[in-house]
Write a structure and sequence with these properties.
The complex is a heterodimer of chains A (300) and B (278). Chain A has helices at residues 6-9, 13-40, 69-76, 78-111, 117-129, 132-143, 148-156, 169-192, 197-205, 210-221, 223-238, 242-247, 255-265, 269-299, and strands spanning 55-58, 61-64. Helix content of chain A is 72%, strand content 3%. The radius of gyration of chain A is 25 Å and the shape is globular. Chain A is built from 14 helices and 2 strands, in the order ααββαααααααααααα. Chain A has one domain (72-299): MetI-like (MetI-like fold, Orthogonal Bundle). Chain B is globular. Classes of the chains: A mainly alpha (300), B mainly alpha (278). Chains A and B meet through α1, α2, α4, α5 and α6 of A and α1, α3, α4, α5 and α6 of B.
Chain lengths: 300, 278
């Protein structure tokens, strides 16, 4: 069979089609990371921009100045280590909660009659099309001390005084699961809907019970979907800023918030860059995992 | 075998839907509250909508954000179409691994990292090239386009991968140039994906607060930045009104694009069936 190749028929066209998106991403996505790494080893100075130059040409000699003091600073102050550890813990737990809620939802959609599936999927995805900021904000009104939930519980007589919910870790978990749930459901559904029912029928013919065949067949087969969905939640949540800022309190020290404060409040660009470098180093393996399973799913 | 299993999952599904929609419904109800105290119900009123439209700063931010979102989405879709062709049709070329990595990484990369790295890029570029001289709408547009390219490419390439290549082959056999075949056959077939990629990019750009905060400059406050600074001070009835409008518009657009998508999809499938029948 003749394979269509836009490129071969079009002299030079192939290269042009590749070049534009490639160059855009190289300049605006990849190159910035090298600049972050460069600034992470510079010194903070007063001035514009507020970091020292790496290369200096003085008296016919090229001086290259690199300092690792920003990194040793990060490791000497327990605040930063706590922030990294907390971020990973929150992201991990939230991913687990989202999976526990998202998996049955994706399963229900995949097993629904096929004419209902697009509508059910739309129901789950629609909230993620409205503003992220607004959805996080909605929980401020619900969780605050004189908010809807506390008033309702007081009215029911279950509690005598409002429970502190806003500005706690609990609120952060609610906000994260709420905001990221659609991203968990979508890849899981995409995976589950492709499963062959014949396998389950065979298992049932051989006497397997519903739960047995679920754990022995459906769950292992949905591994790619579980990994893709979990990474889609875990990785961005590690660096999340808006949710801990609006819903979290003093106890919620997360690295995204610390980076933001170093950058905007302390105007310490080198330390903010060093924080980013370590964050990327921590996330590189999850990102590669995501990339692998995303491609596997797409090419199936 | 009639499969009627796991009504448990259906129950959890509807609980999840309640969890997703409950807070937004409360927001809509409270936007019509007459009281300045957001939590105390004092009867129905539309006064906060009036106050919202009189907030000149907020309104100019709306205009700016819509403009940035329009340009970012349009650029991202064009680059996304090219990137999808590269991903799906060019199986082998040097640097393909890096390319596909640069497509997927922005999907999950935390916003603070993208924002910081883009800002440092713009500062370095201004220092060495003198461009962009000032940060503002231009730099936000560049930053938004970059992460929207990734989302557009995922949406468009999945559609392109499903597409029946025999349609293109037929056009080529009938003497169309590859470019003509692409514009007359491929583009119309993937058009539902292009529309959803554009809408997705538009909403992502309209929604971004973190990246825009990093790369913006004096005077270029976008709507999310403005909303965020007001929301940090606490719940405000004006923001409830704004949220209600956003929810209304998004539901309307999503619903109509879903209808449109279904219609185009059905027509294409019918056309494909007819073509296969011959």
């Amino acid at each position: 069979m003749k394979k269509i190749d836009l490129a071969r028929a079009l002299p030079g066209g192939r290269r042009l089609v590749i070049a534009l998106p490639y160059l855009w991403l190289l300049v605006f996505f990849l190159l910035p990371f090298f600049i972050v790494a460069k600034i992470a080893v510079s010194e903070a100075i007063l001035g514009i921009p507020p970091y020292s130059a790496m290369f200096e040409w003085v008296d016919q000699t090229l001086n290259i100045r690199m300092t690792f003091s920003n990194f040793s600073w990060l490791f000497s102050d327990p605040l930063y280590i706590t922030a990294y550890w907390n971020s990973i813990k929150v992201a991990f737990n939230a991913t687990l909660f989202a999976l526990l809620l998202g998996y049955p939802m994706a399963y229900a959609i995949a097993k629904a009659p096929s004419h209902l599936q697009p509508t059910w999927l739309l129901l789950v995805l629609l909230p993620s099309w409205t503003s992220f900021l607004i959805r996080v904000y909605a929980w401020m009104g619900l969780l605050s001390n004189n908010g809807v939930i506390n008033n309702f519980l007081l009215w029911l007589g279950i509690i005598d005084s409002p429970i502190q919910m806003l500005n706690t870790n609990f609120a952060v978990y609610i906000g994260v699961v709420y905001s990221y749930l659609p991203f968990m459901v979508l890849p899981l559904y995409a995976n589950l809907v492709k499963h062959d029912n014949a396998l389950l029928e065979a298992a049932s013919d051989l006497g397997a019970r519903k739960w047995t065949s679920f754990f022995r067949i459906t769950l292992p087969l949905s591994k790619n979907g579980i990994i893709a969905g979990s990474m889609l939640v875990f990785i961005p949540v590690v660096g999340e800023y808006v949710i801990p800022e609006l819903l979290g309190g003093a106890e919620t020290i997360m690295i995204g918030k610390v980076l933001w404060q170093e950058f905007f409040n302390n105007r310490d660009w080198p330390v903010a860059s060093a924080l980013a470098v370590i964050m990327i180093a921590l996330l590189i393996i999850p990102i590669m995992l995501f990339h692998r399973y995303q491609n596997k799913e797409a090419e199936q | 075998m009639k499969i009627r299993r796991f009504s448990l999952s259906v129950t959890i599904f509807w609980m999840g839907i309640f969890f997703l929609y409950g807070p937004m419904i409360m927001l809509v109800i409270y936007s019509f509250n007459a009281s300045r105290m957001v939590q105390v119900w004092a009867g129905w009123s539309t006064r906060w909508y009036g106050e919202l439209f009189r907030d000149a700063q907020l309104m100019s931010a709306v205009g700016r954000s819509l403009q940035i979102a329009f340009y970012s989405a349009s650029t991202a879709v064009v680059i996304g179409i090219l990137a999808s062709v590269v991903m799906v049709r060019f199986r082998r070329f040097r640097g393909r691994t890096l390319f596909s990595g640069m497509i997927t990484a922005p999907l999950v990369m935390p916003d603070v990292i993208i924002g910081l790295s883009m800002l440092l890029l713009f500062v370095a570029m201004a220092q060495s090239l003198g461009w962009p001289a000032q940060r503002g709408m231009l730099t936000i547009w560049l930053a938004h386009t970059t992460f929207c390219v990734a989302y557009s490419t995922v949406v468009i390439s999945s559609r392109l991968r499903e597409m029946d290549q025999s349609l293109e082959e037929a056009a080529l056999d009938l003497g169309a140039t590859p470019l003509k075949a692409f514009f007359l056959v491929t583009l119309p077939v993937i058009s539902p994906a292009i529309i959803s990629a554009w809408l997705l990019s538009f909403t992502l750009s309209l929604d971004d607060v973190v990246i825009a905060s990093f790369v913006t400059g004096p005077g270029a406050t976008t709507l999310p930045i403005e909303v965020f600074s007001q929301v940090k001070l606490g719940v405000s009835p004006k923001i409830n009104a704004l949220a209600t409008i956003i929810i209304g518009v998004v539901s309307l657009v999503a619903f109509s694009s879903w209808l449109l998508f279904r219609k185009i999809d059905q027509r294409n499938r019918a056309a494909a069936r007819m073509a296969a029948g011959h």
